[in-house]
Automatic annotation (TrEMBL):
Protein name per its UniProtKB record: Phosphatidic acid phosphatase type 2/haloperoxidase domain-containing protein
Signal peptide coordinates: none
The organism's taxonomic lineage, starting at the top: Bacteria, Candidatus Daviesiibacteriota
Ranges of residues in domain Phosphatidic acid phosphatase type 2/haloperoxidase: 52-161
InterPro entries: PAP2/HPO (IPR000326), PAP2/HPO_sf (IPR036938)
Membrane-spanning residues: 22-42, 54-76, 121-140, 146-167
Length: 176
C-alpha cells in the first residue's frame, strides 16, 4: 500500500462512530496541550528523570521547528484535503503538509522521556501515536507526514544531546 492508499484507508473510518470522531478530533487538535500540561506537572511532581527529560524536550523543540522550516524550503506537499478536495473533520490552514509539526513536537517530547527511562514514557508514546493517527483520521496529514514528523522529533533530540555533550565538555559541567 502506498501513502495515499493508507491515508484513505484511515480517513474513510470517519463518520461511522461519533464518539471515535470526537476522540480523533481531540487527538488532532487538543491532545498536544495535554502533553504540555503533563510535562509541567511532572516538572514539579516527577523525579529527577522527568526533570531531565523536560530540559531535553525544551532544547529539542526549537531545533525541531528549525528543521521543519528547513524542510519546508524544499518540500511543499499540499495537505490531503487540498489535493483531493475532501472535507476534513477540523478546519485547518492551507500550508504545507510534510512533516507534521504536531507529530514532531510530541515525538521530541516522548523520546526525551524515553532517553531518561522515565516511567511516564509509555503514556507519552501512547499520546504520540494518538496525535499521529488522529491527524491522518481527521484529514489534515498523510501517513508519511506523521512518520516524517516522528523522525524530525528524533533527529532534534539527537542534535540536542550532541549540544549537551558539547556544552558539558566545553564548560566542564557535571554529567547528567
Amino acid at each position: 500500500m502506498n501513502n495515499i492508499s493508507v491515508f484513505f484507508l484511515i480517513f474513510n473510518l470517519r463518520n461511522q462512530y461519533p464518539f471515535v470522531d470526537a476522540l480523533m478530533i481531540f487527538g488532532a487538535e487538543y491532545l498536544i496541550y495535554l502533553v504540555f500540561i503533563l510535562m509541567i506537572l511532572l516538572t514539579f511532581k516527577g523525579k529527577i528523570n522527568e526533570r531531565k527529560a523536560i530540559i531535553l524536550a525544551l532544547l529539542s523543540l526549537p531545533i525541531a521547528v528549525v528543521l521543519i522550516k528547513i524542510i519546508h524550503l524544499f518540500i511543499l506537499e499540499p495537505r490531503p484535503y487540498i489535493s483531493y478536495h475532501i472535507t476534513p473533520l477540523i478546519t485547518y490552514g492551507d500550508d504545507v503538509s510534510f512533516p507534521s509539526r504536531h507529530a514532531s513536537i510530541v515525538s521530541a517530547i516522548a523520546f526525551s522521556y524515553l532517553h531518561f527511562k522515565s516511567k511516564w514514557f509509555p503514556l507519552f508514546l501512547f499520546m504520540m501515536v494518538w496525535v499521529g493517527f488522529s491527524r491522518i483520521y481527521v484529514g489534515v496529514h498523510y501517513p508519511i507526514d506523521i512518520l516524517g514528523g516522528f523522525l524530525v522529533g528524533i533527529i532534534s533530540q539527537i542534535i540536542s544531546l550532541q549540544i549537551i555533550k558539547f556544552l558539558k565538555a566545553r564548560f566542564f559541567l557535571p554529567s547528567a
